[in-house]
Amino acid sequence: MKVYLDNAATTPVRKEVVEAMQPFFSEKFGNASSLHSFGVEARNELEKAREKTASILKVKPSEIIFTSGATEADNFSLKGTALVARKEGKKHLITTAIEHHAVLHSMQWLETQGFDVTYLPVDEFGLVDVEQVSEAIRKDTFLVSVMAANNEIGTIEPFEEIAKICSERNVLFHTDAVQAIGKIPMDLKDIDLLSLSAHKIYGPKGSGVLVVKENVQIEPLIHGGGHEFGKRSGTENVASAVGLAKALELAEKERESEAKRQTALRDKLIDGVLQIPNTRLNGHPTKRLFNNANFSFSFIEGESLILRLNEKGIAASTGSACSSPNLKPSHVLLALGLKPSEAHGSLRLSLGRNNTEEEIDYVLEVLPLVVESLRKISPFAGQ
Amino acid sequence: MKVYLDNAATTPVRKEVVEAMQPFFSEKFGNASSLHSFGVEARNELEKAREKTASILKVKPSEIIFTSGATEADNFSLKGTALVARKEGKKHLITTAIEHHAVLHSMQWLETQGFDVTYLPVDEFGLVDVEQVSEAIRKDTFLVSVMAANNEIGTIEPFEEIAKICSERNVLFHTDAVQAIGKIPMDLKDIDLLSLSAHKIYGPKGSGVLVVKENVQIEPLIHGGGHEFGKRSGTENVASAVGLAKALELAEKERESEAKRQTALRDKLIDGVLQIPNTRLNGHPTKRLFNNANFSFSFIEGESLILRLNEKGIAASTGSACSSPNLKPSHVLLALGLKPSEAHGSLRLSLGRNNTEEEIDYVLEVLPLVVESLRKISPFAGQ
Question: What ipTM was reported for this prediction?
């Protein structure tokens, strides 16, 4: 049995999306900036994808900037507004300790360029305190970036409340909505900038959007021919944009039914796994994405767990995929107050539209045995 | 008859490339940074694509950085080395007046950040003077960027000689090889940084490479999970990388035979078009890409020409695709010494592997009539 439970890392492109993209490789292949009919055909389809995306997010088409993914979108958002803010004498940004590395490492880079960054702590469930955001805003603060939902522990942040405060205080609000989009309803009313990715919602890799509301002044991260309203240059990737729009449409269409179905599977999984002794659930018990389950098992290294589960056909992760190869303890789990040894022993199981109850039953059969056998050989057990 | 003669703007993805990419959408869809078998499978294929690309370019696999295209690669190259150079007290870059906007606009942005840029002129054929490059190098020069071949007029620059001088003078050399790759043999021995794009060689859009030789110190343009040896973050786009490697492999394999075939077609086209009165060939008569023909027709606006040809089924461009919508006269043609009115009346016909002699005959039948009819209604004719 092959059970893929790493849908927070990436998802397979669904059939309807592959089909929607297909014509744009070899047939409707024109450069969307060309004046001839090949170009006009590509341009029309690109703009249709933009309109569809905008309509789902309830923003204007001119506020949709297609990018090569959410990492680029996060970088563009923070660095692009920072360059404008500097001219206005503003140099302070606020974020949280549990953001994705695309945000955290962009913030750290901005610090090397003379900007000040406040990294807000989170509580034991990974929740940011709205009051703390408000208190951290200074006269020279230009942007607050708080993710909509965390990629490792699935905690859903009070991003709409934070957005409202930022709006009232005249500070830009950015949210990395990579994990949240298609999983929770999102009201973008007070959100100035929002990053999303296609490959987390059964769309293609290398495809993302930065929503840039029309009130936002931003400098390009990537200069050139002036594509995407002068905000992001590079020959338009029509296939990717079409794929993203289609994936987003289907994700929204199925959101409620999948929420119901996956919540039931997730809860069965959580209840079952918590039967294993010395196990804790990481993240918030209720304010969490319907597809996320994250556990810490005392006395065990996460990597060993992943590899043993892999031998049994179960694909899971410890921390996020992005930080897997470096084997550092998760910065998210450390921020919750876990000890490095506990953070090392974490397991993220993230569900998707293809998972079945049979698969969950299989995991609940295999996982306790794997944990038991690893604890038997653990030098930490019984200490 | 539909005749696509805008292959310098973009090309259709060839069948073999689409087939090579196909498995990576829905089957081998893993995140290449995941530790489980889905991830390992993706990682292996990504590294195979990297090795293939490296072997064709005769560089090390660790010197291949996959990007979202050549525009990103150009931006990364210039801005990434500039950030390092600044720490060493160096602030001068050298480029030419006829670079692609991805280079020129990155340079202009660097000027706003305190860097100095020398824009070298070119001669009437679009050639950069090697001596002038040498003379422009200062003590604080850290990088020279000269394109391998121009995208509008097809002129092949003496990039290998310039690279050699830069190497001797201990200055980095970057080349935008988007149009040259797959068309001319390229020796990367003295080249430190090289940008290329898949979609100009029958690969997918949104896929490029920046070659970064191991001696080069560079900061990321896109920060995050530390992908691509810490140089370019974002979930790896395996399908795109595989497509690029395949496209490059096939382009190199067919390079000599296509050079012969397309040169004959191009020369027939040039000879035929130059029969039209008051017509000039832009670019170098011999040092030019085998697929490029660029003309100026007195008394005519390029845009009208493109639209009339389009009505006859012929897809062509004036200037480059990137600058089409803004209707500014080509900065490349102005740099050759053409008057704005002449630069406005230019036509680029760029051949590709799918063009036939029959198509060239058709163009030679249609184009003189179109030019004649436009001149009849031109307010400039006869002045």
Answer: 0.96
